[in-house]
Amino acid sequence: MGVLLLVGIVAISGCTQNQENTTGFTAPNTVTIENFAFNPQEMTVKVGTTVTWINREIDHDVVSDTGVFTSPVLANGENFTHTFTEAGEYPYHCGLHPSMTGKIIVEN
Ligand SMILES: [Cu+2]
């Protein structure tokens, strides 16, 4: 009688990998401010979403064109959040550098 022996090499040592390696990557619903630009320049989110702007360079701020939100001046590494509760288009700019513009589109 032949015995077929399947030897499974068990490489799993019991350590579970978690995937919380968000450092350096763009998180969901986050706008990064760098190179005098908002990145992404335009973003679409669902109603109820909290959007975070993170500044990665010299001082900037985030000012809604229609007065919906105004951040304080953000130094490098600081962030600002706003929760969008109504559908619509929300253009914004940097109050310090008006040529910097962006838009959040909020959908139901
Ligand atoms: Cu700016």
**Approximate helicity band:** under 10%
Quote the distance from N terminus to C terminus: 67 Å
| Main sheet overview | 4 strands, mixed
Q: Please indicate the count of domains.
A: 1
Quaternary state of the chains = single chain
* SSE pattern, N- to C-terminal: EEEEEEEE
Strand % is 35-45%
- Here the CATH topology equals Immunoglobulin-like
**The CATH homologous superfamily:** Cupredoxins -  blue copper proteins
| Tally of contiguous helical segments | 0
CATH architecture: Sandwich
CATH class: Mainly Beta
Please describe what this structure looks like:
- The chain has no helices and eight strands.
- It has strands at about 30-35, 35-40, 40-45, 50-55, 65, 80-85, 90-95, 100-105.
- The strands form two sheets. Strands 2-1-4-6 form a four-stranded mixed sheet, with no helix packed on it. Strands 3-8-7-5 form a four-stranded mixed sheet, with no helix packed on it.
- The protein binds copper (II) ion.
- Copper (II) ion binds near residues 60, 94 and 100.
Quick rundown:
With 108 residues, the chain is mostly beta strands. The chain is built from no helices and 8 strands.
Mind sketching the topology for me?
Layout: E1 30-34, E2 37-39, E3 42-46, E4 50-55, E5 63-64, E6 79-83, E7 88-93, E8 101-107
Parallel strand pairs: 1-4, 3-8
Antiparallel strand pairs: 1-2, 4-6, 5-7, 7-8
